[in-house]
Task: structure prediction
Amino acid sequence: MVLRQRVCHLIKNGGTSWNIITRLVAGAPHHYLVMRRVEILAPTFLEYWAVRRTLPHARASWAGVRLARWKGARQDSIVVVCGLAGALAPGLRPGTVLIPDWVGLADGGIVHCDPALVQALVTAARTLHFQPDTGPLLTAQSLIVGGDRHDWSQRGFVAADMETGLLAGRNLRVATIRVVLDSPEHGISPDWLRPTRALLQPPLWRELFWLSRVAPQYALRAAHVLKAGLGTGPGSIFAE
Result:
């Protein structure tokens, strides 16, 4: 309430720039900063649950696979995609934290992640005793399995998602925090994109048991790293 009164007073008296208001907001509670400055996109309901549980006051959207549910954001907004990914590079184990410097599309397009956001998330991950991989992420149209993992790995991509690269050309400050769910050595069936169909296949029940154990844990890991990255100290996402 006090913060709101101070900002309103300055606006009424004129001549107050948004930079001054931003400095005032920098002293606000953490949840106000998150809601004010960052939109978090969680593709699946599981990932959205993890973000909501970890950052209950955040401005978060259940964006849908390939951002099918997302309505977009204003230019110059800060958008962070948070969730899981599939490893492409051999040896990249499930549970590895991914914070890519850039994201590629299958058609050759590239999204360069905001350096300040990347640095904030990398610092946060290390503070939480994770060693993040900052190698390039591929945004694909569907799950990449089998020999396709090797093919894309040979092109330099360490992992894949289906969302972050779709933010290309929107004039946004973009970053993504992902945690590896499956890998070339421990893959999952693409049928899990349609869970109802997958549940009707007994051979996939073993995968279901494994997914039900690790997927929530890894989604929460991504959200916890993001929460640490949303701090207000030097080098944080809110630094101007």
